[in-house]
């Protein structure tokens, strides 16, 4: 549904070239929610602009719903854009228009019959949970309600794709969860394909099926959420399944282990302690469910003098990811 191939965007600043995107390739299957994460300046916003050709790529291609945007002529590009809904950090509603009139605006632009406009706009407000707010102005709405109006407006053209640029970063945690639940519900109900640009890992954990890490204009990690999380030691895995800081107890070796699915509820520490006749201290741990899979992430310490190699090998035989942790990184 969304296919990006070797996308580059270079800006000219005086005599200097600034590479904002450096060979980004990405594929998001139909009906899925994909998250793009990265620090400020990673190229996330540039990617959104290039996906809609609001900012023309220097090279590479963008295909959405089978339409090649990067080589489309003006009329074809306008037609293709109507199949893409945009949700922004701030809803950017027109203050002088009611909620219904804001949702109606995209329909007015394409000269939809007036009776159809009002019916469709009211229908969309009901869809996002705002029945009865048709005549409310933005100043009368909460932040979450404004974002719901923005989502309804993005759906006005009956899009196949939703591009969301930091859709919840201006909202409180409770409202964030409500908006994410709405996006997830709409994705399933309307068979949408969604790409979310965010710096909040909570967003990725809550709704995304897959994720990419963008840094320096390049995608450096990418994959289904459960596969990325299971890659012990990767930057995304550490961010998705963080461990709190802890102090080693003595000079014993420290192991970091990561397990998922049925293994997450198995008494592996007990069985390892019995097998090797040692005590295992748990220094830190977390349990999370990502994309329907439960993950357990632990940092454990062996007694002084115990050889970590056979213990690590045992965990590996049980299908558990394991690595020797550096004590100064614990």
Give a verbal description of the structure.
- The protein is built from 11 helices and 14 strands.
- It has 330 residues and is α/β, with parallel strands linked by helices.
- It has 2 domains: 228 residues, Rossmann fold, CATH 3.40.50.300; 87 residues, ACT domain (Alpha-Beta Plaits, 2-Layer Sandwich).
- A hairpin with a 2-residue loop joins strand 12 and strand 13.
- The radius of gyration is 24 Å and the shape is elongated.
Q: How are the elements arranged and paired?
A:
Blueprint: E1 2-13, E2 16-28, E3 33-37, H1 44-51, E4 59-64, E5 67-68, H2 74-81, E6 84-87, H3 99-109, H4 114-127, H5 143-154, E7 161-165, H6 173-190, E8 193-198, H7 201-207, E9 210-215, E10 218-224, H8 225-229, H9 235-240, E11 254-260, H10 268-276, E12 281-290, E13 293-301, H11 308-317, E14 321-324
Parallel strand pairs: 3-8, 3-9, 6-7, 7-8
Antiparallel strand pairs: 1-2, 1-4, 4-5, 9-10, 11-13, 11-14, 12-13
Q: First CA to last CA: what distance?
A: 42 Å
Secondary-structure element pattern, one letter each: EEEHEEHEHHHEHEHEEHHEHEEHE
Mean pLDDT over the residues:
91
- Catalogue the unreliable spans: none
Q: Could you tell me the strand content as a percent range?
A: 25-35%
Strand order within the widest beta sheet: 6-7-8-3-9-10
Helix percentage range: 25-40%
The CATH homologous superfamily of the largest domain is called P-loop containing nucleotide triphosphate hydrolases
- In total, how many beta strands? 14
Q: How many strands, what sense, and barrel or not for the largest sheet?
A: 6 strands, mixed
Count of alpha/pi helices: 11
What CATH calls the topology of the largest domain is Rossmann fold
Indicate how many domains the architecture comprises.
2
Please tell me the CATH architecture of the largest domain by its name. Answer: 3-Layer(aba) Sandwich
Per the principal axes of the C-alpha atoms, what is the gross shape?
elongated
CATH class assignment of the largest domain: Alpha Beta
Radius of gyration: 24 Å
